[in-house]
Design goal:
single chain, 159 residues, four-stranded antiparallel sheet, Dihydrolipoamide Transferase, OB fold (Dihydrolipoamide Acetyltransferase, E2P), 2 domains, 8 strands, alpha+beta
Length: 159
């Protein structure tokens, strides 16, 4: 099944980024978190990771283009989701719906937070993010590692 991926917010207050170069080509197989492109903003140059395991179906921008955050960036053909287009009866439809609902509950965390989670042995799927749009922060991962519980509210002290 084709999965459309939009350019994520690559930094606070950044509304667009210049596509410096693609790190993959159409037809390439990628794994989740594998860098697929380098994007430069007015603040930094960052690598944009793949959100899923799959095959690059279409690259929607050319190197040098300025891409607005939230615009369609790349389309992936995702393994295991092809059954959504199959018409094999109710059972395959239920499986497709399940795969879609799991995909919509995808964990959003920047690569640095994913690395920290691996180092601390934290399963990101079990952490609820307290950052913008539910994004998982360093603090969420550290809280999950220390107490086994994640904090869903930003830590604020009223003294």
């Amino acid at each position: 099944m084709a999965r459309e991926f939009t350019l994520p917010d690559v930094g606070e207050g950044v509304a667009e980024g210049e596509l410096v170069r693609w790190l993959v080509d159409e037809g390439d197989t990628v794994t989740e978190d594998q860098p697929v492109a380098e994007v430069e903003t007015d603040k930094a140059q960052v690598e944009v990771p793949a959100p899923v395991d799959g095959t690059v179906q279409e690259l929607h921008w050319a190197e040098g283009d300025v891409v607005p955050v939230g615009d369609l960036f790349v389309t992936f053909d995702v393994d295991g989701e092809a059954s959504a287009t199959a018409d094999d009866g109710d059972e395959s439809g239920d499986e497709a719906a399940s795969a879609t609902s799991e995909a919509s509950g995808r964990t959003f965390a920047p690569p640095s937070v994913r690395t920290l989670a691996r180092e601390l042995g934290v399963d990101l799927d079990s952490v609820e993010g307290s950052g913008p749009s539910g994004r998982i922060t360093d603090g969420d991962v550290r809280a999950a590692a220390e107490g086994g519980e994640d904090t869903t509210e930003p830590a604020t002290e009223s003294t």
